[in-house]
Amino acid sequence: MTILHLHRQSLGMFAGLTIAASAASMPLSGAFAQSAAQTLRVANPVAVVSLDPFGAKAADQPTLTVTQEVLEPLVMRRDGAIHPWLAERWENPDNLTWIFHLKSGIQFADGSPMTSADVKASLDRVIAEKGPLAGLWAAVEAIETPDAQTFKIKTTQPVGTILSNLTMLGIAPAAKIRDPNFFSAPYGTGPFKVASFTAGQLVRLVRNENYWGEKPKLSQIEYRYIPEVSGRITALENNEIDFTWGLPPDQIDQVKDSKSLTVESFPTYSNYYMWFNNSRKPFTDARVRQAMWHAVDLAQIQKDLFPGTASLAKGPIPQAVFGSSVQTPYAYDVAKAKKLLADAGYPNGFETAMMWSSQCCAAVREFAETLVSYWAAVGIKVTPQELERATWLDRLLKLDWDSTLTDGNTLTGDADFTLARLYLSSAKRMGYANPKLDEILLAARAELDQAKRSELYASAGRLIWDEAVGIFPLDMMVHAVYRSNVKGFKPTPNAMPRFENVSKD
């Protein structure tokens, strides 16, 4: 069964869905369109609506893509390993204590010194705001600053994820971090600072002349939101922007032969997944969930919809992530799917619904149409629900859904960020609760030995996979497209491109 055949079957189902207005005809502002020699003009695929990465937007990729150039962490993950950054070294005098020694002489962009008080204030705010990353710090008992260059974390139990968690903590000035006005133009110790910000439209960064490291060659970075892919491609071809990413697979062929453009595709920490609401019948039965997985030919979907842009997933998190492991694939087997449904008490199938965000991911509607058609072949009638992102997110968090199709990003590159944050019973994210899984995930989080942590996450991944808590079809690649005069770009597996080492000819 091919995608083309499936698509014809399901064309009528989506006739009423609204499509975002094209941005191809949106005029670019004069300041944005006229590029200075070292101004990088970037079209981001999702709107930046906030520059505050400490609260509700702490895991929001558009926010983090910009603020990573401004607010730096104590440590960074580079080439799969954790490296010192604002901290020069650290130690564990015991299993409950982490002591970080900060590099000396580092200043914020306003010239004030960065001290341990700023680190403490930054972590305090993440915890106090109770946002999406607060759970990473649930075991913190005390945060201490013995002196201006020393930062100490004490925990109630051993936490093996402290370093990977810290890669997500940008440091802001303690004196400013609780001032909402600060985040209209925040600054930190990073290579750039914010010059102006119009939510949902434009962010302009300028070089931080007080930067402690190697000064960027770029004088400015301008991020503009162009919602339609066609609008971004047109802007690239017309030399109105220099860089964009997140193009869907069917658009890659359109630009890859251009002499003025470079296309770079690379594996990431991102994957497509479909969750079942495990607290709502019939998805309380693992056999139903497994049947829906066996009913879908994922290899054909990858070939038809995502050629060269995604690979078949081998586990619930991408293989590039620390703690990933290879699981036994679910074979496309219609007979087995029907038998599992019959064994679960649904020999004639059932009716359900699947929702997704219209702003979600590459080829999401085509992917959804295809899944719906496959399930129809085994008697499962799925009503598609394409929603605005705010509505989708509200329903997701309230567990007001049967199933949902989306993508995820293990931003820290560490399995804990996805597996423990989302699949612990206490997370209440997809109605799945398994004490055995909780035990494994909590043991992995508490383990300081990284090899043992990896083994525990492999066990957790196997359980999530075998129980079919969701369907994990594809590990995603990101496609960056930029003008040929852009030099020095290096892909980042967290799918949030960095530009401090970029220049323009």
Q: What would you note in describing this structure?
A:
By secondary structure, the chain is of the alpha+beta class. It folds into two domains: 3-18 and 267-477, Dipeptide-binding Protein, Domain 3 (Dipeptide-binding Protein, domain 3), CATH 3.10.105.10; 35-225, D-Maltodextrin-Binding Protein, domain 2, CATH 3.40.190. The chain has 15 helices and 19 strands. The protein has helices at 3-10, 30-33, 61-67, 116-129, 162-166, 229-237, 249-256, 286-294, 298-305, 334-343, 364-376, 389-397, 415-423, 435-446, 450-466; strands at residues 39-44, 75-78, 81-84, 87-94, 97-102, 140-147, 150-155, 192-198, 202-207, 220-225, 243-245, 261-276, 310-312, 350-357, 380-387, 403-409, 470-483, 486-487, 503-504. The termini are far apart.
Topology of this protein?
Blueprint lengths: L2 H8 L19 H4 L5 E6 L16 H7 L7 E4 L2 E4 L2 E8 L2 E6 L13 H14 L10 E8 L2 E6 L6 H5 L25 E7 L3 E6 L12 E6 L3 H9 L5 E3 L3 H8 L4 E16 L9 H9 L3 H8 L4 E3 L21 H10 L6 E8 L6 H13 L3 E8 L1 H9 L5 E7 L5 H9 L11 H12 L3 H17 L3 E14 L2 E2 L15 E2 L1
Parallel strand pairs: 1-10, 1-11, 14-15, 14-16
Antiparallel strand pairs: 2-3, 4-5, 5-7, 6-7, 8-9, 9-10, 11-17, 12-16, 12-17, 13-17, 18-19
Helix pairs in contact: 1-11, 8-10, 13-14, 13-15, 14-15
What's the short version?
With about 500 residues, the protein is α+β, with helices and mostly antiparallel strands.
What is the third-level CATH name, the topology of the largest domain? Dipeptide-binding Protein, domain 3
Please tally the helical runs, counting DSSP H or I stretches of 4 or more residues: 15
Give the DSSP E fraction (strand runs of 2 or more residues).
15-25%
Radius of gyration: 23 Å
Average pLDDT, rounded to a whole number, is 90
Helix content: 25-40%
What's the total count of β strands? Answer: 19
What's the CATH C level of the largest domain?
A: Alpha Beta
